[in-house]
Every structure is written in C-alpha cells, then in structure tokens.
Amino acid sequence: MERGKMAEAESLETAAEHERILREIESTDTACIGPTLRSVYDGEEHGRFMEKLETRIRNHDREIEKMCNFHYQGFVDSITELLKVRGEAQKLKNQVTDTNRKLQHEGKELVIAMEELKQCRLQQRNISATVDKLMLCLPVLEMYSKLRDQMKTKRHYPALKTLEHLEHTYLPQVSHYRFCKVMVDNIPKLREEIKDVSMSDLKDFLESIRKHSDKIGETAMKQAQQQRNLDNIVLQQPRIGSKRKSKKDVYTIFDTELESTSPKSEQDSGILDVEDEEDDEEVPGAQDLVDFSPVYRCLHIYSVLGARETFENYYRKQRRKQARLVLQPPSNMHETLDGYRKYFNQIVGFFVVEDHILHTTQGLVNRAYIDELWEMALSKTIAALRTHSSYCSDPNLVLDLKNLIVLFADTLQVYGFPVNQLFDMLLEIRDQYSETLLKKWAGIFRNILDSDNYSPIPVTSEEMYKKVVGQFPFQDTELEKQPFPKKFPFSEFVPKVYNQIKEFIYACLKFSEDLHLSSTEVDDMIRKSTNLLLTRTLSNSLQNVIKRKNIGLTELVQIIINTTHLEKSCKYLEEFITNITNVLPETVHTTKLYGTTTFKDARHAAEEEIYTNLNQKIDQFLQLADYDWMTGDLGNKASDYLVDLIAFLRSTFAVFTHLPGKVAQTACMSACKHLATSLMQLLLEAEVRQLTLGALQQFNLDVRECEQFARSGPVPGFQEDTLQLAFIDLRQLLDLFIQWDWSTYLADYGQPNCKYLRVNPVTALTLLEKISREMKDTSRKNNMFAQFRKNERDKQKLIDTVAKQLRGLISSHHS
C-alpha cells in the first residue's frame, strides 16, 4: 500500500512537471525553447509528456475553430471588399506606372543636372575645407621657410626666435598632420644645429682675433700715441674735462639689435678690412676694427637655450689659452725692435678685446676675471722683458724698447689696467741701459784715445779757434793775444771727450723721458750715470792708454796736460746738467760729479808712468855702459853712453814745458835719483870683484857729467843745488876714495856736520875691498921691484886698517 502511495505521489509530481513544461513552451520564445525540450528528453516520462502535448494541441485547435466560426462572415465581407479594391488598385498602378514613365522621361536631364550639381557642391565643400586647412598650415610653412632662410644666411639668433614661435604658437594648431610631426621631431636637431653653428662662428672669431690681435693692438697703441702727442701739445694749457679719454669716447657703440644683423660671409670672422684706412689722418678706433656680433649672437643663443654658463666657461677657457700663447715671447724677440713691438701689440690687442667684452656684455667676463688675466700677463711680460732685454747690448735698441714699453703702459692705462709694475721694471732697465751706454762709450773713448795724435791742436784762423773754443770751454788771455798760427795746449781728444760726455748725458736724459720722474730723480739718475762714466769707463780707458807698452813720454806728457784741462771743465759739466734738469747743485741730496777725482787719478797714473818710463829709458842707456874696471889709464871725458843719456834727458825735459811745475820737477828729480841709484848699483854690483883707482876716476867723470846736468836746471823751479842732492851719495863716496881722506871720515863719522855724512860704512867697505883685491893681485905680478912692493905693502896695510875700522863702525852700528 505504501508502494501504491509512493507511485501515486510520483505520478502527481510528473504531471505537475509536464504541466510546467507546457506552460513554459507556450510562454517562451521559440529561440529559447531548446533547454525546455531537453529537460523532457532527459526525463523518463517522454511518452506521457507527448500524450499531454497532443491533448493540449487538440484543445488549442478547438479554440481556434470556435474563434474562426465566430468571425467567418466578417472575413468573407472583407475578402469581397479586397477583391473590389484590387481592381481599383490595378488601375491606379497602371496610371502611376504611366505617370512614372512620363516623369522619368521628362526628369532624366534634370537628374543628370542634379547629379552634376551634387558633384560640384561636393567639390566646393572639399575645396573650402582644403582652403581652411591650408590657411592653418600656411603660417607654419612660412615660418619654417623663414627659419630655413635664416639658417642659410647664418642669422642664428633670429632663427632661434623663429623656432620658438613655430614650436609654441603655430605647430600646436596643426599638430595632427604628419608633416608637422616631422617638424616637431626636427626641432631639437635644429636647436643643436644652431648651437653648433653659432659655436663654430665663435671659434672662427676667436681664432681670427688671435691671429689679428697684433693689428688691433697696433691700432690701439697708435691711438694712445696720438693722444699722448695731443696731451704734450696742450700740456701748458688749461683743460676742461679729463686728460684721458672717457670710456664713452673709447668704445664704439655696437648695434646689438641682432634681429636686423646683416648676414656674414664665411670669410667674415670678426676683423673688418682697414687696409685703406691707414692713409687717413685719423687712426680708427681699436674697436672699429672688430665685429663682435659672433660673440653677442652666440651669447644670446646660449642664453636662450639655457646654456649661458657653459658658454661663459668655454669662452673664458679659450681666452685663457690664447692669453698664454700671446704671452709666450718668440725666442729671438731681443734681436730687433719689431719683435718687441709685435709682442706688445698682441698683448694690447688681447686686452682691448677683453675690456670691450667686459663693457658690452653682462657677465660674460667680469672684473675679477680680467684682473686675474692681467696679473698673469703682467708677471709673464715683466719676466720676458727682463730675460730678453738682458741680451741687448745696443743702447739705441734699449732706448727704443723703453719708449715702446712706455707707450705699451700708457695704452693699457687708458683701458684701466694698473701699470705701476711696468714703470718699476723700467727703472731696472734704466740700469741696464746705463751699462750698455757705458760699454758703447768705452768703445767711443777707446777710438778717440787711439786715434789721437797727442799733439797740441794747431789753429791757423779765427774760425778754427772759435770752433775749438765752441766745443770745449777754454779761456786763455795770453793765447788769444798770440798771432796765428798758434796752438792750444791740449790735443784733440780733450774737446772730443768733453762733447762725448755731454752726449752721454743727453742719452741718459732721453731714457728718463715719460717715466713720470721728478726733476730731482732725473738729475740724480744723470749724475750717478755720469759718475760711472767718469770713474769707471773714462778712467779705465785713460788707464789703458797710460799702461800701453808702446806709450811714449810725449804722449804721457800730453795726457797729463789734457787731463788737467778736463779736470777744469768739470764745473761746466755740472752747469750743463743743472741747465737740462733745472735742479740746482745746492739742492739737498744732489749727487756731485767725481770728474775731478777721475782726472786727478789719471794724471797721477800718467805721472807715475812717466817716472817709470824715464827710469826704463835710463836703464836702457845704462845697459850700454861698458866700464873697464881694471884700467889704469886716466880718462879725460865722460863715457859715451852717459853723454847720450844726458842728451836724451835734456830733450825729454824740454817737452815738459806745459806740464805743471811740480810734475816736471818730480819727474826730473825721480830720473836723477834713479840714475844715481843705478850708478851706485853699477859700482857696487857683486860681479865686479876688483876695480882700479883709474876706473874709479873714469866713473867720477861720469858722475861729474850728471852733476853738471843737474846744475844746468833742465826743469825750472828747483832751488839752488836741490837737484844735485840726488847725486850727493855718489859724490861723497867718490871724493872719499879719490882723495883717500879716511882719517877725516873715520874721525867725523856719526857727527851731523861731517864731510862724508852720506857715505855708508858698508858701502865704503864693499868698494874698499874691491880696490884691495886689485892691489893684492897687482903686487903679486910686480914683485920684481922692491920699492914698489914696499909702497904697495904700506898702502895695503893702510887699507886693511881702514877696513878693520869700518867693520868696527858697522858692528857698533848694528849693536
């Protein structure tokens, strides 16, 4: 029973499920009925479902039939009406078809015209759209074309401005076009191209001004020279305004309106052509020679591109390198002035450019950078000048170099650079200039002294006399009264040396010009240099002449006369220096000239040389002496060599008439003393072992000849027998032996008024021993005559006795 209940329950559930499926089929769209049917086939009651489905279909058919039967009459009526309408519709169709055929036939041309109108309107619309688009693109293309033209003509800064307008204003309006995208992609490349090209122009500019800096500097220095000449002209006139040009006058106003900058050719690298301007009266300004637009353009371009600092660093780095090249002097710079001039021109040109850049740009270079470069340049320039000027031995070149350095310093001072160190260095070069002058004048003095004839200057007319007096300050009333022809006491080297001293002073004065020195400093410099000329150069030249081996007594005498007159002229040299420096000699710290001392020393050296020369001549004559010390014959005249010697001395002292009295007297006394000393040495020389009284008599005749010469007064001014005193030692010695007055000598020895006061016991003993040796040899040869032997023995004993007493005197004197 339970099973029956379960079956019944399942049958109810199946029936309910089938009912649901049927409702779903009735209500669901046929496109979605698939899943519903699948659920039927998936079940086990497929047959029963089909039965219910058939039942449901029959029910619906019966309902349809009922509804059709209900509306059948209405349907039939409707069909009848439709059949009527169909006939009328056919008629209408025929009429419409006929009308359409007629309309088509009639409207065919209109359709064609309308089609053509349609095409025209379409083209018009397309053209209008195209024009609108082209109107948007045309400014872009024009700007791009303008950019290309500016790039082609190297107007880089305007090109950069155009590029900015193109990028930010025009391209955004047409950015969807393909060609615009190409332009946008090319913009960074164009910027780099402008940057590279402008940098290339800058490099060309830097290279060009490096090559042409000497031309720029030359022009600047010419300007400074013209300004200095103008200042010198109006030096005594009252001035309005500054002495120096103002910066406003110095700098040329440059057009920085780069939008209107004219295009530059490839050869235009910053230096303008000024070849034809050299003939103009006015020298063009240094900045007029340079086109700085490449620098300005590149600076603006890099500033716009945001790379100004990079540009500044590059510019300064390159200019530092160029400065080092400019400051490197050529190895042969010292050989010519042009070498120095080119060196200075390059330095001036470099700093003129930098100074202009400083004042015409904002921050590209600054004062600290300029000062750093100038300090480096100043130190290197001074070092180079010290080195190269030390090789220079030509004073004219040194003087030209000094003038060039002054112009160099004045030029740079115009541009505000400190140049005090250059003027300090010029003071060092001044010492070198003095040395070169001294060397030059040493040669001049040497030539004057070597070419002089050392004879008084003869004059045969008043014109010649005035010419000499005009060259040398000489006044002599007695000489003026003498008739022509007459002679000056000095030789030609006196006026020549005097004039050369003045020329030397002028040369020193030339160097002091434009050094901004006071009159006192100039005076001190000239006096110190002149003192060096006198005490060193002229003194050495005179000493060299005096010490020459072949110098004669006549030349020495003339040198003494000449130096005496030069010594007197020193006061005129003092006046000459005072006149050209306007510094009175009484001024405190004024250096005095040492010319008097120089000429005195030279004169004293000449005097000593005269004495030495005379003595040498006397010695030469004495070398001719040929005494026969063993002769027994008594001569009656002086020796020939001595007669010649006395004649030489007489002729020599006759030349001493123009010498100062003391000089002539000293020379004469010196000669006589040397002659007396030499004769004494000749008599006492060790080689003469023996001598006879006969030889002593001959020697006495020679001494008498000397005494006669002394008494004759060969040089005026000696008092009484002063000159004879030179032979007093010989005279007393000879008188002692010839008169054999030993008793008097021995008795009076040591007394102040004794007769033989000048006879030394040693000298007397030496001569006595020579006579004793001769007598002993004679006695041995003549031993056949007893009487003679006895006399000789007595005399020999006397000699031995005297000798013994002389030895006693000598011993007592030493004790």
Characterization of this structure:
Residues 421-770 form the Exocyst complex subunit EXOC6/Sec15 C-terminal domain. Component of the exocyst complex involved in the docking of exocytic vesicles with fusion sites on the plasma membrane. Residues 82-109 form a coiled coil. Residues 258-283 are annotated as: Disordered. With 815 residues, the chain is mostly helical. Helix content is 73%, strand content 0%. It has helices at residues 2-27, 34-42, 46-152, 156-170, 178-211, 213-233, 247-250, 293-304, 308-326, 337-360, 367-389, 395-414, 420-451, 462-471, 477-481, 493-512, 519-546, 553-568, 570-581, 595-622, 640-655, 661-684, 693-711, 728-739, 742-748, 761-781, 786-814, and strands at 458-459, 486-487. Strands 1-2 form a two-stranded antiparallel ribbon. Helix 13 (420-451) packs antiparallel against helix 16, helix 16 (493-512) runs parallel beside helix 19 and helix 22 (661-684) packs antiparallel against helix 23 (693-711). The termini are far apart. 28% of the residues are buried.
